[in-house]
Amino acid sequence: MTVGKIHNQEAFLSNIAGQLGRERRTEGVQRPQWKKQPQQEVFAGASKEELQEILIRQCGTIHTSVDTTTTSDLPKTLNEALEKFGSSPAVYWEDERFHSFGLDPVLEALPESRAWSDEDREEMTAFAERAKIGVTFSDITLAESGTVVLFSAPGKGRAVSLLPEVHIALIPRSTLVPRMTQAAEEIHRMRKEEGRVPSCVNFISGPSNSADIEMRLLVGVHGPVSAHYIIIEDA
Amino acid sequence: MSIRISNKPFFERVEKGIDDEFMRSAVSGAQDRLEGRKAESTAELGTWEDWRDHAEEIRQHTLENLDFYLQQFAENAAAQGGHVFFAETKEEANEYIQSVIRRKEAKKVVKAKSMVTEEIGMNEAIRELDCEVIESDLGEWILQLDDHDPPSHIVVPALHKNKEQIRETFHEKRGYGKSSDPQELGRFAREQLRKEFLSADVGITGCNFAVAESGSVSLVTNEGNARMVTALPKTQISVMGMERIVPTWEELDVLVSMLCRSAVGQKLTSYITGLTPSKAQDEHAPEEFHIVIVDNGRSKILGTKYQSALQCIRCAACINVCPVYRHVGGHSYGSIYPGPIGAVLTPLLEGYENNKELPFASSLCAACTDACPVKIPLHELLLEHRRDIVEHEKGGFTEKMAMQGFAYAATHPKMFQFGGKAASPIVDRFSEKESGPGPVKLWTQIRTLPSQKDDRFRDWFEERERRNNGGKNS
């Protein structure tokens, strides 16, 4: 792996230590035992069913439509959603879960659709920009804020959830957690145990919005104009 | 632009603000809405004070160990292929950014909103290279098109502009022919900005918080423009104030949650993006990732009584409750950091010379201190500034005399009684006129001095007692 360059570090950090009136600290600093951690209490002990209800309620606040379905009905539900939003062109992740949930036939049957490929960045970006719909799978789902957490990885292009007019996120119920706290713990664990975190972690809660003109809500000024979640009752 | 957005004198700026009726109603409307939403979303948690305590503890611990966490951050970012530049001054920061742009032979830079790049005047530095800089936050883009009108609010930069003014700007600068309906204006901006994202060579963002344990930067937005800026151009530069750092992702959770709730009353904004330089495993991340860590006067605040000002997470909650900001608007502060935090921070970063009025532009009602999610004692810091300014200036003659006179009168009851009565006819002469003498002048330029014609409280009270007693007896 190429190592990047660091410029001016020592002088800069020595100055900071000097201003703080002590020697440079280069090691041995531990996070203290925090006195309070209220984030742990939010929806503590809620079941997956309860978290699902909280998520659905929150979707009303973040301008996101939502379907619930079973694993066996998922292909049908996705198909209906695609039709509702104008179906094609569609771009989706090269993600193992599309195969395991039996969704390839649904997407391949569209007049124009492509799975993300890392091979040709320019061409894929242009396609995603033209695409009507982008389909992703949530890696972790936050009930409190109605957020899907997407970890970048080979085949899981960032543009799929960003450039198309509609973003459809597939949410296995097994991925539901109370809030951002549990996702942060998981990323912290990845760093400690696997030595790395995904190059891009996206927390996405509904469509793009802005309130820059007279404080009025404008949806889709930059990213998707619509967001749609499909919750799969797999657990 | 730099931290300073106007060279006009303070009272001239204030007067302009007070005369701008649209701005004033926009500001009070925004304050009410943002503060209302914040109150709702914090009440819902039921443990807001615990959250504030936790956030404060995190910020204090990080500042106390800032050199350690910045080193950890830089080493982790570099180990994964990122380039980290520590910039003591704004000139050093701009030179480094220019060097990257030159090497890439970039013709177009697309930017997501960032306070620190405003503070260091980065856009001008880039334009010197014959390279275009496009602001991509909708509000910032509007201001940029409108001949670089300065922002007036940290979270809602174009708050002072109405939709007709925006339509006019779009029409004049980009040939827009449709209505002033915000939806239509927004669709037009979408089309225009898409082209910019796709054709830019370099993307530049700020950084809400950097995460030391993994060398990541995080960006909190609703529009998703930061995602565009970091996903599309091949070179990415993130510019961060050196204090914007957390130890691990677990503290990131807490501060991001506080930021979103305090700024706009949302549980999380539409997009929160964590980016880590990581060439080894990547799909279509930028090919080059640079992080510029900026001091620009911040280190001078460390180890002083003002250190807690560096806890700020730029949520604008203090601005949204400030009665002074409500009346004078963001431009009156003359700084890219308006409101109570601006009145604390601007003199620290830029010195007292041009900013000595700012700490006095406060009612010291402490609403800002109560609102602050990381518990910066804002009104106390404003008082500290006042003390330091008076000490520094050794007090103007008039002010000193007035204060000494008051101190004498206040400690001598006979004098105070006499003074109260004697003052009435004198003060009344100025109360409804344009100006008064000495220290009263600044007040009467802006406000009507309360009339002294009515009874003094003591007289009124005695009279009331007398009447009540009379009533009882009859």
What does this protein structure show overall?
- Chain B: Pfam families: Fer4_8 (PF13183), LUD_dom (PF02589), LutB_C (PF11870).
- Chain B: It comes from Alkalicoccus halolimnae.
- Chain B: GO terms for molecular function: 4 iron, 4 sulfur cluster binding; metal ion binding.
- Chain A is of the alpha/beta class and about 240 residues long.
- Chain A has one domain (about 45-235): NagB/RpiA/CoA transferase-like (Rossmann fold, 3-Layer(aba) Sandwich), CATH 3.40.50.
- Chain A has 7 helices and 13 strands.
- Chain A is globular and about 65 Å long.
- Among the domains of chain B are: about 70-300, Rossmann fold; about 395-470, no CATH class.
- A 6-stranded parallel sheet of chain B has the order 1-10-7-4-2-3, with helices on both faces. A 4-stranded mixed sheet of chain B has the order 8-5-6-9, sandwiched between helices.
- In chain B, α18 packs across α19 (about 415-430).
- The model of chain B has no long low-confidence stretch (mean pLDDT about 90).
- The interface between A and B is large, with 91 and 109 residues.
Q: Which shape of chain B, going by the Cα principal axes?
A: globular
What oligomeric state is this? heterodimer
Beta-strand proportion of chain B:
5-15%
Q: Please work out how many helical segments of chain A DSSP would assign.
A: 7
- Helix tally of chain B equals 21
- Name the CATH architecture of chain A: 3-Layer(aba) Sandwich
Name the CATH homologous superfamily of the domain at 69-301 in chain B.
Answer: NagB/RpiA/CoA transferase-like
Cα-based radius of gyration of chain A, to the nearest Å: 21 Å
What shape does the CA trace of chain A take?
globular
How many DSSP E strands of chain B? 10
InterPro entries (chain B): 4Fe4S_Fe-S-bd, 4Fe4S_Fe_S_CS, FTHF_cligase-like_sf, Helical_ferredxn, LUD_dom, LutB/LldF, LutB_C, NagB/RpiA_transferase-like
Domain LUD (chain B): 70-294
Keywords (chain B): 4Fe-4S, Electron transport, Iron, Iron-sulfur, Metal-binding, Repeat, Transport
Protein name (chain B): LutB/LldF family L-lactate oxidation iron-sulfur protein
